Amino acid sequence: MADGNRELQAEEEEEEEETEAEEEDDDEVTESPGKAGPAERSGHVAVTDGQSMFVWGGYKQNAPIRGYYDCYLPRDELWIYNMETGRWKKSSTTGDIPPSMSGSCAVSLDGMLYLFGGHHAQGNTNLFYMLNLKPGSSMLQWDRIECKGTSPSAKDKLGAWVYKNKLIFFGGYGYYREDDNIGTFEFDETSFGNSIYPRGWNNHIHVLDVKTFTWSQPVTMGKSPSPRAAHACATVGNRGYVFGGRYRDARMNDLYFLNLDTWEWNEVITRGICPVGRSWHSLTRVSSESLFLFGGFTTDKQPLSDAWIYCIDKNEWIQFEHNYSSKPRLWHTACVSKEGEVIVFGGCANNLLAHQKAAHSNEVLVFSVQPKSLGRLCLEAVISFREMLSSSFEYLPTHLLHTVSQCVGSNNLSGS
């Protein structure tokens, strides 16, 4: 169940992942709407269509199995979070279900979830999967896609940008491949004696055209970022931004963007104060002018709970005050709702490398980073004065009454 990569010590850090015994669950998963949510987890993926957040994979702490404390989450489960009402629903998936994994990279485009890479019980993978999330789909069925062209090497903890009909993947930690020669690969020397296939960091760019499912690897210009993993990426217009990540013993706080039309790299030298270097954080587009940075893990292995707004026009970082300063998170996910709220789910609340002491979370943190819409303000007012207004609820349109009823049950309107 565990390969040689699993024998490394915890202090060798996140790029030599915790041993994760695969937990299979072949039973039919029924829908369970309500406040009950998914198990605590880290290293999962989450995508959104603006109304719902879809969560898959990751691992959690469990009773020791062969001396190890972590296990993967069931691979056939997809958890769906209603971003307006705060209600969870668990659904089963069928088809070519990916193996249980952590550190995969997932994006959403035109109602489809695309999943690449990750780490499972036998090591890294470079397989590519697709799941139809469009409303009205009769079932949630995975398809494994056999793409044309030369795929990226097997890796995890990479980042991605979505631009037009293309998925652009950057960096990661995984196996070396001789034909992957556009860019830089640096071996992790600590992996040499612990695996048949040593692993390392890279700064490779790979592009997948989802119309033809063909891989390509562009030649970039300008000063490219160093190899890295556990970084965070966000797309704004034709720019693919990347912040931080780990390379060798350093967790960085550099900021770059790649022009997705010309393939030119640009290092961004910001004005004023900057966030501390980190990995396992999230970077989320919240408007055409700003990015939201939250959490992560520092070089000295401290979990972070700070939040920052990067203002693109002003080229400066502004620290964002919020109510979750006592709730650090790393290797979590972050998605933006149609109301402009950043929804953070899961992750670890302390030193993830402590194995049996790791505090994985299943909590949802809601950051209100944009002004609320008039409709949202009205809904919050109705909830606040629900006892006074309850006798008039029957006059609401059916869809609004349903939303009010669900919000009363979830109480998910406090924001940050």
TrEMBL record:
It comes from the Eukaryota. Residues 10-30 have a biased composition (Acidic residues). This is Kelch domain-containing protein 2 isoform X1. Keywords: Kelch repeat, Repeat. Residues 1-44 are annotated as: Disordered. PANTHER family: KELCH DOMAIN-CONTAINING PROTEIN, KELCH DOMAIN-CONTAINING PROTEIN 2. InterPro entries: Gal_Oxase/kelch_b-propeller (IPR011043), Kelch-typ_b-propeller (IPR015915). Coiled coil: none annotated.
